[in-house]
Design brief:
- By secondary structure, the chain is an alpha+beta fold.
- The protein has one domain: Alpha-D-Glucose-1,6-Bisphosphate, Chain A, domain 4.
- It has 3 helices and 7 strands.
- Strands 1-7-6-5-4-3-2 form a 7-stranded antiparallel sheet.
- Helix 1 crosses helix 3.
- The longest helix is centred in the last third of the chain and has 12 residues.
- The radius of gyration is 15 Å and the shape is globular.
């Protein structure tokens, strides 16, 4: 059976407004990202998305230094951020992640969607590594809606 080239998509309805949800995704990624999904969970210090087109997406480890995960390809604050992703993949054949945030129904809260695409025959073998994204996003959802305390 062939693996689908369609994006892996997850959609959520949040109480927060679109700008806060997307800012939480980008500026707070170091708080919500699960260290188990890095090169070395025991030494993870931070995860960073630089806020501009061409900006780096990377993790910083106390033992490994900076570990590049990709580059920002679209930066539209409050609406959309797209970046390449090389984490757990061939760095020469990355996939692409898009985080999209739009006003919710009747102007309350927001609709947040994460799309992990950019799958081609040359990189689709890595696709199965990303099936547990909802588990990874649980902390993001709690943080975006203000349910994680300052100690997170």
């Amino acid at each position: 059976m062939a693996t689908s080239l369609e994006p892996i998509t997850h959609g959520y309805v949040l109480r927060s407004d679109p700008a806060h949800a997307l800012a939480t995704y980008t500026t707070q990624i170091g708080r919500w990202w699960d260290p188990r999904y890095t090169a070395n969970p025991d030494t993870l210090e931070s995860v960073t998305i630089e806020p501009w087109v061409g900006g780096r997406v990377y993790a910083t480890h106390s033992d490994l230094g900076q570990h590049d995960w990709g580059r920002v390809t679209i930066w539209e604050p409050g609406r959309r951020v797209t970046h390449t992703l090389t984490l757990a993949q061939d760095p020469d054949d990355p996939s692409e992640v898009a985080a999209l945030s739009a006003p919710g129904e009747q102007g309350a809260g927001c609709a947040f969607r994460l799309e992990h695409g950019g799958w081609r025959r040359s990189n689709v073998s890595a696709r199965q590594r990303f099936g547990d994204r909802p588990v990874l996003l649980e902390r993001f959802l709690s943080l975006a809606d203000g349910e994680l305390g300052a100690g997170g």
